[in-house]
Amino acid sequence: ELMESLRRVFVDSISNSFYPVPQEAIGVGSAFEGWSPREWDGVYRVLVPLSPPPGHAFRLELNSAGQMAARSFRVRVEWVSTCQREQLGQELLCFLHHSQKELRRKHQRSLLKTLCTGSYLDVEKTSHWFSQLLRSSWLHVPQSRSWHLVFQPCGRSCQFQLSDGKESLRVEVLFGVRQGDSDIFAVSQPSEAQRGGSSIFGSGQPTKANIMASTAWPETYAVAEAKFFRHIARQVPCESLHLKCLQVFTCILRGTGFSCSIWKTVVVHVLTTVPLSQWHRREFARWLWDIMVYLGRCLQLTRLEHFVLGNERLPAEISLPPAMQKVEPLNLFEHLARDAAAHREAMQAY
């Protein structure tokens, strides 16, 4: 409700400018999926998709080679003609066909002149702009009468804390550009796996998130994963049983070397390999055992497939870009197959 109130105020305040247009926010991560690990940082994360303003278009350009799960993009901003379009009964100025003198006279500045570095949308400039917009809009939303807002510095997202004297909430707003009409986004903040937190065994997928270029937008599957959890919740007899299983492993087995993202991947794979009608509360111990057995088999084979990439069992309601629908399944345990010492360490931990 808060994010929707803010979005309405934002859209109204930037209606006569050429800044990105915030769309409806999407809750991502464990807090919105219905489970939280013991080491949960207490932050509610929402992804705000950004659409290009009139006269502009976003083009995603692949920015990194290597494994699919570690990809990042640059968001190229281009001008498009608006000569034949009207807005609120007025003809739009066209950055392609109107003179710079006329544009300056109308005080119209292209997105390329405000939030871009070169021709590419800049994450840090976008984050600063959004934070300033939130600061100036806060008193115009109904929630401002009940909650106190305090900003927290962050370069690649907008973070703030809300408190009403009794409780407090920490929120992180991520920004994303949707890949076509899919549930896959190029997003401002790298994921846990992209920050090198997928496992403590071996090197995993080392990244340079701390020196990530301000024009780099990492790929995220968080929206597709959140959509999958909503899909499951509508079908399992005991709505929260699979979430309780996930919490058991991420809380009780903390420190064993298997990260939350690994446990989450294992649990969702089990959910797609057995009939959902069998997830009854009386079978809780059985499902804990089956999840452990599945992980053990993956460790022995040194193969745990990415849940989104190359998964033919994804629900039809989860939309992937055409190029992603035919990729080979990505092995999250590939580093264990290459590193015998890391594999032994993982088996001992198991």
TrEMBL record:
<protein>
    <submittedName>
        <fullName>IPIL1 protein</fullName>
    </submittedName>
</protein>
<dbReference type="InterPro" id="IPR024810">
    <property type="entry name" value="MAB21L/cGLR"/>
</dbReference>
<dbReference type="InterPro" id="IPR026250">
    <property type="entry name" value="ITPRIP-like"/>
</dbReference>
<dbReference type="GO" id="GO:0016020">
    <property type="term" value="C:membrane"/>
</dbReference>
